[in-house]
Write a structure and sequence with these properties.
- The protein contains seven helices and no strands.
- The protein has about 230 residues and is mainly α.
- Helix 1 packs across helix 3.
- It is globular and about 55 Å long.
- Bound molecules: protoporphyrin IX containing FE.
- The site of protoporphyrin IX containing FE has 20 residues, from helix 1, helix 2, helix 3, helix 4 and helix 5.
Length: about 230
């Protein structure tokens, strides 16, 4: 009985974790689409980036979404850690009973490690931008004068003109890529969307998504490193 309860609660944890993860997957698309305008991809890229930032920092609905975003991050992290601990604790029994391979698990072996890498990335990333916006830390130092706490364009230039940060971002974002590659398909699996016809498509889309997101985000520090 207690085993069944444990199983049910573990399944619901996975469902909530997957829903939060899927929200984060969408967030990354929006976040990358805006950030790419830091690069000279159009003539007026700087203007577009600044207008997008203006919209993101003033539009009331975005403020609500920001709360949902942080809620999703916290939920995802807490449930991920709890499920991983449960996984470790259940391991001796699991091996004896399970007939599935380890990679069938939505928590494939390295998710917790790449998750920790993302957490480290976020701490550094928030120190560079988000905590500046909140007024908790000073803007990143560098040659570009930062006009105010919403001047993310010059903050980004100061961050990425520092090769230490650029390399750090590239390495840590690679960790994000590995995490996403597994997480995308695992999320659908946890939601029960598992079908011989659709699963290969989900896996394929997940692979393309994680490659595009990883290369997209890496292109920003890489551009500054090369130039
Ligand atoms: C080179 C890559 C990236 C750049 C240039 C960048 C830039 C920024 C900037 C300028 C902000 C402040 C925006 C604001 O507070 O309104 C921000 C916030 C944030 N970033 Fe990034 N980011 C990058 C990669 C990432 C990645 C890979 C993640 C997720 C793993 C991420 C997650 C976040 C979150 C959660 C926030 C706070 C929420 C928000 O304000 O939108 N960022 N980022």
């Amino acid at each position: 009985m207690s085993q069944t309860l444990l199983k049910i609660s573990s399944i619901s944890k996975k469902v909530f974790m997957s829903l939060a993860g899927l929200f984060l997957i969408i967030f990354l698309v929006v976040h990358l689409s805006i950030n790419l305008f830091i690069l000279p991809i159009t003539e007026n890229h700087q203007e577009i980036f600044k207008q997008a930032v203006e919209f993101m920092t003033t539009f009331p609905l975005i403020k609500v979404m920001e709360v949902v975003l942080f809620g999703a991050f916290i939920l995802h992290i807490i449930l991920g850690v709890v499920l991983q601990i449960e996984n470790w604790m259940a391991r001796p029994v699991g091996y004896a009973v399970s007939t599935k391979s380890k990679t069938d698990s939505p928590f494939s072996r390295f998710s917790i490690h790449t998750g920790v890498i993302i957490f480290i990335f976020l701490v550094i990333h928030f120190m560079n931008f988000y905590f500046v916006k909140l007024g908790w830390v000073d803007p990143p130092a560098g040659d570009m004068p930062v006009a105010d706490k919403h001047d993310f364009y010059n903050m980004a230039l100061n961050v990425f003109n520092n090769p230490v940060y650029s390399v750090l971002y590239i390495v840590l974002i690679l960790g994000l890529g590995f995490h996403l590659h597994h997480a995308f398909q695992a999320a659908f699996q946890s939601l029960g969307l598992n079908h011989p016809k659709y699963t290969p498509w989900i896996k394929g889309i997940g692979l393309i998504y994680s490659i595009v997101i990883t290369i997209g985000f890496i292109s920003i520090p890489l551009y500054f490193l090369i130039n």
